[in-house]
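request received
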Amino acid sequence: MKSKNERYIPVGSITYAIKAKKVLEKKGIRSYIIRDFEAAEGYGCGYVLKINGTDETVESVKNILIDEKIKFCEECGGK
Amino acid sequence: MIYFDNAATSYPKPHSVYKAIERALKRYGANPGRGGYKMSLDTSQKVYAAREAAAKFFGSGYAESVAFTQNCTYAINFVLKGLLKPGDHVVISDLEHNAVARPVYYMSKYNGVEYTVAQNESLWGDDDFEKKCVESFKKSIRKNTKLFAVVHASNVFGIKQPIKKLGELAKDNGIFMMSDAAQTAGTEDIDIKRDNIDFLCVPGHKGLYGAAGIGALITNKGNELTSIIQGGSGNRSLMYEQPDFMPDKFESGTINVSGAIALGEGITFVSENVKMIREKEYAIIKYIYKKLKEDPEIVLYTGCPEEETSVPILSFNIKGQSGEKTSSMLGNLGVATRGGYHCAALAHKKYGTDKSGTCRISPGAFNNFDEAERFIWKLKKIY
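response:
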């Protein structure tokens, strides 16, 4: 069962998923790689970064991913 | 057996590489990038670690800049056929392996691509070898020149080419630079950013001490290439379009997982032992060179391999005997060498060995001086 604080950011590939997880770890943000086509909203490979946090957290994570040139779905990231 | 054929395939491999392959088959047996269960994700993590190791080793900076291929030749073909279009011109060197020469020739015959072999008037050991090499490329540039495709070091004679200077020349003229690092990946310090290499093609099974069946295309300019093989990549499954990003663009179908993981271990081994490997290989090849030089029955084609000018590879012949025959006779005495033409017609033509071929010796990380001495002793038994 999904918690209300879980957010999902679909990524372009498993390579980008792993890279994103590592980058976020270095910045103290814990994330999990899962494969969930529903959460992926039709984007990429079905791999999704699951994070716990608010809309602000999601925006912060997205900015990090952009800086690191990680392919992800910029429009996604909902609950 | 004395194994002096490391330029073909390094042998033996480090213990860590053997263990990595076994572990990969047993513990990381799932398909990476296809599943959401633990073993698939663990496998993907291991493959990613191998990408990171290669990216760090060759200075690309990004794990995704490493696309695993079947071997170095496949990586070269991805670049040549993904970049060059009808009417484009490519310059290659006069020491190229067939990995470059054949696809370029094929494309000139069937795809409307033009090519020039930059003829370096100088030979190994000439003071102006590097200068003349760069000049030969400069002279070969045309308005439609799109790529320099250059072997970093000759697989026959070990001669190093001034890859960094050629990269600068390419950059100054808006030309892409591809380096075939079949004989230098693992033995030479290569940094694709520093050396202006747009596309680096490496084998896994030679100086990086991985298994056969794995290589890599390392580039931060994958967007400049079209894919030449399309297929399943684990993503965008409902779309017919091939992914347009690295590394998925060049990794259709399941990759060689155990090969990739083992390659990562091989790169780690080389990274941790690069000084030892270089010193040992050069010491052995120099010792053998000096012994051969003293023998009037031996024909040599280059000077003593030095770090500045050569990789630790040496070609020789016994007077009046083909390289293939010498290699065969040595094989009967338990010495592994490579005889013949080494898939390198251009290099043999340049050095006048296109009739005889040569016998090539190439030491590796696990050879020793005792083997070098026994090699000399055994060589004298065959003539």
